[in-house]
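Case 367 in the screening queue. Each case pairs one protein sequence with one candidate compound; here the compound is zinc ion. For every case the pipeline is the same: read the inputs, emit a complex structure as tokens, and attach any notable structural observations.

Predict complex for case 367.
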Amino acid sequence: MTTGLIFHDDYLKHKPPENHPENPLRLSATMEHLMKTHVLSMVDQITPQEAKTEDVERVHSLEHINYIRCMSEKGHGRFAVIDPDTYVSPETYHVALLAAGGVMAAGEAVVKKEVENVFALVRPPGHHASRNQATGFCFFDNMSVMVKHLQAKHGVKKVCVFDWDAHAPNGTMGTFYSDPTVLNMSIHQDPKSFYPGVGFIDQIGEGAGRGYTINFPVPGGTGDADYIYFINDFVVPYVRKFKPDLIAIAAGQDSHASDRISQLNVTDAGYAEMTRIFMELADELCGGKLVLELEGGYNVRTLPVTHNAIISTLLGIPHDKKVEGKPLQSTHDLLTQLKNTLKTKSIWGEAPDMHEASEEDNTCKRA
Ligand SMILES: [Zn+2]
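Case 367 output:
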């Protein structure tokens, strides 16, 4: 068995306005680089299909799905704008369904044991999209659509989702906030002054889902040694207790030191080491079943190299650099705070939809 790579040429058809960070180059430059390094010839390329409406409806309202379709159709070759970050071009609806379908195909390939592990190189990203709201470059929450699909159709019961994107996954967090079948963990830049404004340490789920959402909001400057320390000291034993049937990573590489969208300091060695740890954990707990799917990552000069490091690791090729340095004091302090939070008996509020659109298009009915 080998590593799968999900890609479709149509992922390049969701076309941004000029100078938008979420653009097709993120994927085309990655594919070119993977070809140059011959990693592309080592993976099983899987061509996905669009998710069906019924698949997306497990996560989003029909009104929301129709709103995105309508906004795409009425673009007539020009952009429609959902919020200051989130644009719609005429192919957006198709490409967003194809991204959700791509992550579904990734999950299926792993569950059916067609590949050992998989990287879904998809766009637009998904983890900010909530039930009724496209935001933060996201339309449909690809990760949540995959998880619900595998649970509904492929006998998967428990999924561990780990999100290393620089931003908290408010969409995914909202979907599973009271659901104890999904352990939803995220390390991200502190949302006090960073999009999406949720993902605080005391947001740990509610009701039956209490303790199944974990947020680790780190300050700018946090890097490889901190991520690895958090994962080894907390995440690994926590996931062992949960015993998932599958581990899925929301791999957003905007936490990279070179990515100007965040102030985080993760390097290729850090991403490779995180990948290796989750491969080992998946081997131990769930027959190696591991899915990585693309979220953010906007430095098109370094992103292809980072993707090469991650996918090479999935193929079993060790990264040439080791993680260096020691975790910051702030990471030790946060970890103590998280462990204390999980011990307390308070009841936490819901994960809210944070981002209200500032510009509304009244011709498409909003959910
Ligand atoms: Zn992000």
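Case 367 observations:
- The first strand starts at residue 3 and ends at 6.
- The domain at 3-343 is CATH 3.40.800.20 (Arginase; Chain A).
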